[in-house]
Structure formats: C-alpha cells, structure tokens
Amino acid sequence: MAGFLDGKVALVTGGGTGIGAAAAEALARHGAAVAITGRRVARLDEVAGRITTAGGQVATLVSDVADEASATAAVEAAVAGLGRLDVVINSAGVNEAGGIGTLDLAGWRKVIDINLWGTIHTCKAALPHLRAAGGGDIVNISSTAGRRAAGLFASYATSKHGVNGFTESIRQELGGENIRVCLIEPGATETEIAQSVSDPVWAEMMQQHVSKAGAMQAGDIAEAIIFALMLPRRANVSQMLIRPTIDTAPM
C-alpha cells in the first residue's frame, strides 16, 4: 500500500468499529502501519483481516482506554511492535441516556472515563513517542454534542465538551514541537454507538438518529481525517465540524 503515509505508524483507539475502524482502514490504504485498540477481540480481528487482505500492516491490541495503565500499555506495545509512532486517532467512545436526576453516577463515570479520560490517557502516553519521531499528528473525535448540550444525554455532552477543551489546549501547547492537533466533530454518523446506551428506549432513539436518511457514514469521517493529515506541515486543521448535508432532525 503506497501512499503519503509510507513509513509512518498510526494508533487508532476504538479501532474495531465505526469511525475508528474506517479510520484504520483509510490510514492503511495511504501506507501507514496501523495499531488498532479496543476491548472486543473479534471486532479488532475483523478490521485487521480487511487491512491485511488489502496488503496493509496492522497490529491488534486489546485495551481499555478508560484505564490509564491499559491505555499506556497499548501505546508502548504499538511502538514496540511497529517501531515508532507518528499519528494518534482517539476514536473510542460510548454514550448513555439520562441527566443528573436520571442517570446514576456509574453511568456518568463510564462515559467520561472512556470519552474524555481515555483521550487524555492515550495522548499522554503517546507524546514521548511523537516527540521522538520529530513530530506527528493527534486527531481527537468529538461530536456536535461538544458544542451544544442535550439534557437527556448530559454525560455525553459533558465528556465531549471536555474533549474539545483538552484538544485546543494541547494544540496550543504542542504546535511548536511539530505536533499538530485536530478536533473533528461529526454530526449524525451511522455507527454502533447506540448499543452503548443501556436504556432500550433511548438506545432505539439514538439508533434512529444515527441511521436516519442522509446520515453520514464512518468512511466520510475517515476521509476528513485523511484530509487533515495530508495538508502541509505548516497547516493545522484545528477544528472540523461535519454535519450531514440533509439534517432535518439534529440532536
């Protein structure tokens, strides 16, 4: 697989499904060796199979980004196995339904631990390796929920607002070291995120939202990631808000 990422190594969290899986395959098509992390072995193996069949190089790493030690171990294993680290895509994410009066604190912690702390854990572990490579790219996947809150999905909005603030902070901190940091905020995108919502009624509502007519596909967001990476090093796409062209019922 020849491309502009030849010789580069990318790490993708949440690489077994949705945007993470699409991103991993896109990165491999453009020449990167890819390490994909996630909690479900079978899903990681499916993505890895497609990459290797297409001629790409991939490593699968079972990891829980919510756990700092696990997230750090995955980064170290990726570098040990593939030799370096140049690109980090933080795509692991979950959702839950409920506000401060209806969602128990365990549900809040799950969403914030994976969506926000998982991103922080991975970035912190990756930073020494990006510096060793002379620079690189971090792309954090947020959501339109990172700029507007919804009371029934309060933990998700809280986590994504946190991701937005964290991403802009490290962009300012790391730009002088040739490390570009990009935030991508997708609107309705057809993925399996509704499966992480424990209430079946709200899970169905979320599923209808992400699969409605005109909803984007995970591959659309993967192409946005590639666009950000392809620009000259002097150009940093700091924030990219992507909505469906037809968005009749936004959440």
UniProtKB/TrEMBL annotation:
The keyword Oxidoreductase applies. One of its GO terms (molecular function) is oxidoreductase activity. The keyword Oxidoreductase applies. InterPro entries: KR_dom, NAD(P)-bd_dom_sf, Sc_DH/Rdtase_CS, SDR_fam. Residues 8-187 form the Ketoreductase domain. PROSITE patterns: ADH_SHORT. It holds the Pfam family adh_short. Keywords: Oxidoreductase. Belongs to the short-chain dehydrogenases/reductases (SDR) family. This is SDR family NAD(P)-dependent oxidoreductase. It comes from Novosphingobium aerophilum.
